[in-house]
Amino acid sequence: MSPWHRLHMPLSAIAVALLLLLPVAAAAQTAPPSEPMSFDSELQEQRYQKLIRELRCTVCQNQNLIESNAPLANDLRRQIALMINDGADTDEVIDYMVARYGDFVLFRPPMKGITYLLWFGPVAMLLIGLAALGTILWRRRTQVGSDPLSTDEAERLRRILGDGGHDKK
């Protein structure tokens, strides 16, 4: 093996390792923490905390706004605080977020035509799977051993078993 091959193989391994670690390094970077929100009353603070726990970060994997460090989550938390400080009630904040980001921003989307598949899809898939499994098992049970061997088949089986497994036709 040439010296180049001995050097090239470890360099290739290092390059592959660095490429594999690149997404990990990107994920480790977090957005700068947002400034603390201030409210006029304890009730506003409680409404804010409730909303950032109930609303989902639309760019994160199933995280609410309080758990997410994404820049969008910081912006949404700031927007919610501004709306609460401006006197918006909880429903107005939720309506604003749904109008802007769709029902996905809600951890518990409302029951309506477009979300029926979301609500009933898993149950429907389970029922379809159970029905398919039941049908397969029922067919298998009714097919196995349902027809007796014909006289020719029985004679051929006897010859095979009697001859040590060699069929002479």
What is the gist of this entry?
The chain is mainly α.
Structural description of this entry:
The protein has 169 residues and is mainly α. The protein is 63% helix and 0% strand. The chain has helices at residues 3-28, 42-54, 71-85, 90-101, 116-143, 151-162. It is elongated, with a radius of gyration of 33 Å.
Keywords:
Helicase, Ruva Protein, domain 3; 169 residues; mainly alpha
- CATH superfamily of the largest domain, please? Cytochrome C biogenesis protein
SSE ordering: HHHHHH
Tally of helical runs: 6
Contiguous low-pLDDT stretches (5 residues minimum) are 27-33
Per-chain topology:
Layout: H1 3-28, H2 42-54, H3 71-85, H4 90-101, H5 116-143, H6 151-162
Helix pairs in contact: 2-3
